[in-house]
Amino acid sequence: MSDRIAIQVGTTRIEHFISYRIEHDLYVADHAFSLQLSNPEIDIRPGMQCRIFVNNQLELTGLIERRHRVCDKGGKTLTIEGRDLMGLLVDSYCESFNDVEGKTIRQLAELLLKSVPFINRKNIIGQLDLVGKLKTRKRRGTADFMSFFDAPHKLAKIAPGMTVFQALQTYALSRGVMFFSLPDGTFVFDEPLTGGDPDYNIAFTGEGGGNNALAADIDENISKRYSKVTVIGQQQRTDTDGLGEPTHNSPPGVALDDTFPFYKPFVACNNNDSQSPRLRARMMLNKMRHDGQPMEYEMPRHSQAGINFSINRMAMVNDTVHGITGNYLVTARTLCLDKQAGPTTKLRLGLPGLVAGETGRHK
Fold first, then answer.
1. Which helix (H) or strand (E) holds 116?
2. Over 80: is that where the pLDDT of 189 sits?
3. Which fold has domain 200-220+293-350?
4. The domain 88-190 is classified under which CATH number: 3.30.70.1350, 3.40.50.300, 3.55.50.10, 3.30.43.10?
């Protein structure tokens, strides 16, 4: 029996589609969806809130941002596109430039989310009592990840030009946790899953017998990876003239990748407290490792053994074609439907427990 996809807009539930694509990625802040319908039951417009269900389980709460209508001799079709509620935080700029130093993550989240519509602040979980130090970061979420680490500065107030997502993610990363959302709309401040029993089994063997994966895409690229990352703690000292003079007054943070094939060092500076160089070095190395070997498997349907495919869950892999065995973290999941392949799911896998900063897909 095929898995059932449904989108609910208001009180109307739609379950028949020409095609769809529903994305969710642990390392991408906002998650997009696109659904093509024929003769929809209601008038769907941009700005409407929607919920997407897989097998009657809520998998995305978001907003419709685009409506594309086509009418020709073949009939009428409607394509609707949008993102989950994290997209609001990626797009919304901070309007109040409050003092934030010494606040817990919970306090900062409540402060910044109170004016964002559609957000249920009760759906926030994780390590909410950590106290971080906010740094300036005037870029939008889609900028290259490595630019996040270019000479950050300590800041006691939220700076004009920062988005809500930037402020919350930066604050979380300064204490070694991520800010991400789950498919049901829950916001999380925590580390990704570090292990545990796998929920899914992926088999891809040369013999063909016992396979359950339709295809595999393994890309190994060490060009932007390093064997050693060093972050030098550099804090700002103000003299009597009010001029800042940099001084190295905290020990460097070092992270090593023993899986890298040769010695290749990377060095960066960090204007922050004494804890952050170590955390920042680890996060930089984690991002390099994650980006350096994406593993993607295409699976039939949208669930396995009654469990919907979802991010931040473990999968056991037996891939004799590429020599990959063991338990890996599901870092991304894309639900797809087209006329040729029917319903399929693309799963991207990575190493468990890698804390790294997300980017936003838009703007």
1. none
2. yes
3. Phage tail proteins - horseshoe like beta roll fold (2.30.300)
4. 3.55.50.10
Ramachandran angles phi, psi of 247, nearest 5°: -145, 140
% of the chain with per-residue pLDDT over 90: 44
Nearest to 294 by CA among 352, 217, 226: 217
Pair of tokens at residue 156: 């006691």
Nearest alpha-carbon partner for 99 in 52, 144, 157: 157
Inter-helix orientation angle 164-173/105-113, to 10°: 180
317 forms bridges with which residues in the sheet? 202, 326
Structure tokens given for 196:
């545990």
**Tokens at residue 308, please?**
């919907």
Homologous superfamily assigned to 5-85:
Baseplate protein-like domain - beta roll fold (2.30.300.10)
Q: DSSP of 248-300, one letter per residue?
A: EEEEEEEEE-TTSSS--EEEEEE-S-SSHHHHHHHHHHHHHHHHH--EEEEEE
User: In 3-state terms, what secondary structure has residue 109?
Assistant: helix
* Percentage of residues of the chain with pLDDT beyond 70: 84
- Quick one: which of 5, 3, 23 has its CA closest to 333? 23
The answer to whether 213 and 298 have CB atoms below 8 angstroms apart is yes
Q: Would residue 276 be called left, alpha or beta, if left means φ above 0 and alpha means ψ between -120 and 50 degrees? A: alpha
In DSSP terms, 19 is beta-bridged to: 36
Q: What is the model's pTM?
A: 0.82
Instruction: Determine the pLDDT at residue 359.
Output: 64
The residue among 151 and 69 whose pLDDT is bigger is 69
The pLDDT tens digits of the residues spanning 280-333 come to 788 788 888 888 888 999 999 999 999 999 999 999 999 999 999 999 999 999
